[in-house]
Amino acid sequence: MKLKWALFSLVITCLVVLAGCEPLMVLDPKGPQAETQANVIWISIVTMAFIVVVVFGLLIYIVTKYRASKQSDDYEPPHIEGNPIVESIIVGIPVLIIIFLSIVTVKSTYEVEATPKGYEDQKPLTIYAASSDWKWHFSYPEEGIETVNYLYIPTDRALEFKLYSYGPITSFWIPQLGGQKYAMSDMVTTLHLAASEPGEFMGRNANFSGKGFAENTFQVKAMSQEDFDKWVEDVKETAEPLTEETFNELLEPGHLGQMTFTGTHLTFLPAPEGEYSGHNHGSAHSNKESEHDHEEHVQHSHEETNEHHHE
Asked: Is 31 a domain residue?
């Protein structure tokens, strides 16, 4: 009796505690990509819960029905061959479950990697999101502005994030808008998101990247297109221009508050895409080396050509 009351009290306590918790951000989507991922999570939870209930139900039934009874010491159980029907069930059902979850996962992966549904015919807002120790730099090349540790976005518009890093590998993640994606130093990865309603969301680096990792967060604010355009105009009128010297200071390890600039660092330190991809991207030294190597290659080719004609 005491054990039953203890279990009952434990269940009531868990329900009371959970009732006071806010919903998990990944299960409170504010965009189409996040909604797709939340649906996959719920499908997985329901599937696994069904499996657990059925397995424990069968366990209780078997233990109860086929429990050992008092037999004589010389009792020998009968020899029983395997049952093909039972063996087919215990092998076939897990295979069907895996096939089902695989189809759901692959289908949803293609959906979240593409432009959000309903936004295919509009031009996306391109934002370059670069991480450094331990901050985030957001460049709006079309608007000609840049922010540090905060992100303003319009609602009902496709967003195309270009992710890369000026330090260790990080992971860009806004749980209520979509899944996380890695930002690396020698390449650009693309993440498609969209916000379906105004609000403020939390964004962060989801990959451990040193002692400042815990505070490597940023604020996201979604607003109407009109409010977003007004914010862009206000920034252009009030913010200071971003210089190469200032940006190099921002890249120094440490934490910063929210900052706003006109212009972007892409003009003097391009992202590692296209001709700038590969090791030591964007640095003046690497660019000079590339130009020098190219000149040597051209000169060597001319020398070989002249020797060929001479022969």
From this structure: no
Q: pLDDT: is 83 or 309 the higher one?
A: 83
For 258, the domain range is 125-275+281-285
pLDDT(225) > 60? yes
- Using one digit for the tens of pLDDT, what is the confidence trace for 166-188? 999 999 999 999 999 999 998 99
Write the CB contacts of 219 (distance below 8 Å, at least 6 apart in sequence). 149, 150, 151, 200, 201, 202, 203, 258
Q: Work out how many domains the chain is built from and give that number.
A: 1
Is 0.85 topped by the overall pTM?
no
pLDDT tens-place string over residues 253-292: 999 999 999 999 999 999 998 655 654 444 444 444 444 4
Look at residue 297 and tell me if it is in a domain: no
CATH of the domain at 218: 2.60.40.420
Residue 241 inside a domain? The answer is: yes
Whether 89 is covered by a domain: the verdict is: no
